[in-house]
Design goal:
14% of the residues lie in helices and 41% in strands. With 403 residues, it is mainly beta. The strands form six sheets. Strands 1, 2, 6, 7, 24, 25, 26 and 29 form an eight-stranded mixed beta sheet that branches. A six-stranded antiparallel β-barrel has the order 9-18-21-20-19-22. Strands 8-23-28-27 form a four-stranded antiparallel beta sheet, with no helix packed on it. The chain is rod-shaped and about 130 Å long. The two termini are 48 Å apart.
């Protein structure tokens, strides 16, 4: 690509702020000076001259122009390091402010945050009553119930005739006239074993079956004239005193959810109102299609306004936890790995690979790769990372941190 004179002048102005001076394992970014002046000040002989924009081109003449049309600068061998010197980009401390470089310290702190997800109301599957026939018989009467009806505790479901109970009750009545306590006790015990409610001794095999709890009828098989087998289900009742809110939590936030955690729910049907509850279970399987975990929250529903099927926005309380933190702006995400630029306090910088957790409040959690107290570059790190990449400075691996 050919650059015109205006483009060359803009590029020259951009690079005039710094002069790159080679050092053992790194670069030294000094204030802009001519090559002859730098040699005179340091008394060192340059290895060669080059253009920072095209570092692969080397020149012997300080007055050379690179293929980009820019004046070359000297590259020196580092006279302060040695074979064991740590590679890195070096910056003259007096130039840091003009280059916009700002440092921050990795510190242990509390990563604040909350977890907002969506969920749906469901029945409390622990508050269920199954109403069955205890013995074979016939449905004599029903009470106009239908699935979906909300009924109170003790409401009648059906009148059932059990012939076997009628015979046992007749025998009991005859034995009771003898006044023999042993025979009376035996007859009463037989009624209990046959399943007569409370060992009922009156009537002729007729009983009214009632619901033990209040709630909604989810299934109803009681119909007038139907023949019943022992153990046949007549109805199923789900209580409504409490309901479950099944929230879908992304699996990457699984560590932020625990049993007993407080939760609040907002429903569009009740604007401005919040319903409070707690997490009672985190189900053991994940949803493969959405990569979420189901978190079960129990909500009080004394007035019955929360109805199964309603959608809700769920706030899962305070998910704050202790963590090693750095400013989020200090993190460089390349797509293949995550880096920060380390500062040794003496003007030398090098990249370090890190493994990060979640972000909150402008802070990023560091899971591995840094230790508390290490300094990182929070502003200007991309300039340093570019210099490190140009000179082939390897990033410190996660296993090489100071932890």
């Amino acid at each position: 690509m050919t650059l015109n004179s205006l483009q060359r002048s803009k590029l020259a102005a951009a690079f005039a702020a710094v002069t790159l001076v080679a050092g053992a394992g790194g670069y030294y970014l000094a204030g802009s000076r001519g090559a002859a002046s730098a040699t005179a000040d340091t008394g060192r002989k340059p290895l060669y001259y080059y253009d920072p924009m095209v570092p692969g081109e080397h020149y012997d003449n300080p007055d050379s122009l690179s293929s980009m049309g820019m004046k070359t600068v000297p590259k020196y061998a580092d006279d302060s390091g040695g074979p064991t010197a740590v590679p890195g980009v070096r910056i003259d401390p007096s130039s840091m402010q003009s280059l916009g470089i700002r440092l921050a310290t990795a510190t242990n702190g509390t990563l604040a945050g909350s977890l907002d997800v969506t969920g749906a109301i469901d029945f409390n599957q622990r508050d269920v009553a199954i109403i069955q026939a205890r013995a074979a018989g016939f449905v004599q009467r029903v009470y106009g119930r239908a699935p979906g009806d909300v009924i109170r505790a003790g409401a009648p479901i059906a009148d059932v005739l059990v012939p076997e109970w009628g015979g046992a009750q007749g025998e009991y009545a005859a034995v009771a006239k003898t006044g023999d306590p042993a025979l009376i006790a035996a007859a009463r015990q037989r009624l209990r074993l046959l399943g007569a409610p409370g060992g009922a001794t009156g009537g002729r095999g007729m009983t009214t079956i009632r619901t033990p709890i209040g709630g909604v009828i989810t299934t109803l098989d009681a119909r007038a004239g139907v023949t019943l087998a022992a153990g046949q289900t007549l109805a199923q009742i789900n209580g409504l005193g409490t309901v479950w809110l099944n929230a879908a939590v992304p699996e990457v936030r699984a560590a932020d959810v625990r049993v007993g955690q407080a939760a609040t729910a907002e429903l569009s049907g009740f604007p401005g109102e919040r319903f409070t509850g707690r997490v009672i279970a985190v189900l053991p399987t994940a949803q493969a299609d959405s990569r979420t975990l189901t978190v079960r929250i129990e909500l009080a529903n004394r007035d019955g306004r929360l109805r199964p099927g309603m959608f809700a926005t769920v706030h899962l309380g305070d998910t704050s936890r202790s963590a090693l933190l750095v400013p989020s702006e200090a993190v460089i995400r390349t797509g293949k790995r995550t880096l920060v630029m380390l500062a040794d306090g003496k003007g030398r910088f090098r990249p370090a690979e890190v493994r990060i957790g979640r972000d909150a409040g402008g802070q990023t959690e560091i899971l591995a790769g840094l230790a508390a107290g290490e300094k990182v570059v929070a502003s200007g790190q991309f300039l340093l990372d570019s210099e490190a990449s140009l000179t082939g400075i390897a990033a410190r691996p996660i296993s090489g941190n100071a932890k």
